[in-house]
Write a structure and sequence with these properties.
This protein has helices at residues 8-14, 41-48, 63-76, 87-98, 113-125, 138-142, 167-177, 251-255, 259-272, 278-289, 291-310, 329-335, 352-361, 391-397, 413-424; strands at 80-84, 104-107, 129-132, 149-155, 181-184, 203-207, 221-225, 315-319, 343-348, 366-367, 377-379, 403-407. The protein is α/β, with parallel strands linked by helices. It binds pyridoxal-5'-phosphate.
Amino acid sequence: METKNYRFETLQIHAGLQPDEATGARGVAIYPTAAYRFKSCDQAAKLFELSEAGNIYTRLQNPTTTAYEQRIAALYGAVGALAVSSGMSAILVTVLSLAAEGDNIVASPFLYGGTYNQFRITLRKLGIDCRIASGERPEDFEALIDDRTKALYAESMGNPTCAVPDLEGLGNLARRRDVPLVIDNTFGAAGYLCNPFEWGANIVVDSATKWINGHGTGLGGIIVDGGNYNWANGKFPQIDGPSEGYHGLNFHEAFGPAAFIVKCRVDGLRDMGCAPSPFDSYLMMIGLETLSLRVRHEVESARKLAEYCRCHPKVERVSFVGFDTHPSHENARKYYRFGSSAVFNVELKGTLESTVRFVESLRLAANMVMIGDSITVVTHPASTTHRQLSDADLAAAGVTPTLLRISLGLENADDIIEDFEQAFSQIG
Ligand SMILES: *Cc1c(COP(=O)(O)O)cnc(C)c1O
């Protein structure tokens, strides 16, 4: 399908769908196959040396997953996308495709808890130094860049405080220092709320588990390649240089602007093995069809619930990017459609214990660690996502004992407000 001129809402339904000549089927098929029969040994050899594109083995590619990847790439206006088994594996494959032992990456201090641990513990053990900037301003990043820096890394909306960095400033810094800018755009909802490529990002990673799937029915991650980084600058011999794994093939010469995403697939997925199941790719593809409708509703409901909470006597503070009191309000207006998010934070008055009682009194809203689900979720970061952090790191991440993170679902917002009302009545 020619995708250039259609708008997001149309692409989310049509992109990636190929007419099925054999059956006329309207929907994308699920191909539950591990491997693919070669037409000949000669064809197999060409597929293996990457001189011909095609299916070899589902760890590398699968037709259902390919359709889903094409839809994602179209939504972002990108050269290619790679689906993997989770958001965490998208981040891991991306960083390991860019950096090796002795290299470093510079990251924002406002990171998803899992990312923080992957960077600070696991990648460090592999000899990749993950430097956490002292703040999220471009100058905070620049202070840590040296000639072994292989990526700048930030979230387009930081989990859990909803901090929105100056994406354009980071894009300018990345270009000036000639380092790829990687943005975790999970909150940007596949580009519907925020498209970091418009501001100079080179690579996007996204936990598809959240708004792309949208129904809490499966895990997934995607890597998206903007095709806008010049790999021929001598810093990335694994991309512009002879590849050890492919008899000296040079990815940049062979695949041009798609070099990075091809490398992530044929080296990253081949070696790390974090391929998605075709059934999960199917769920992601169906989830994408309604993404804009879901996100619109969730963002509207978030505002209603945030306004209700803001006026409640048992609430200490509401931190919602849609309010002009939020430190990232102006950045959200610049980078996010509706200047807003489906997620916000509430700090209750009282103690850890009364906060736990509140959470356990909720009947509709679910006590889970999840965002972007069709059901409303209330998360208590201090006892869950941020439990492994020290007190100092907790304070730096903005997590207090009475903080709750709320991600609005698809219910009628008034029912959620009534649920909160009854839960508030349970605490002193
Ligand atoms: C959930 C999440 C991840 C990790 O994704 P999984 O699919 O759970 O592995 C990474 N970044 C952000 C911002 C997330 O919210």
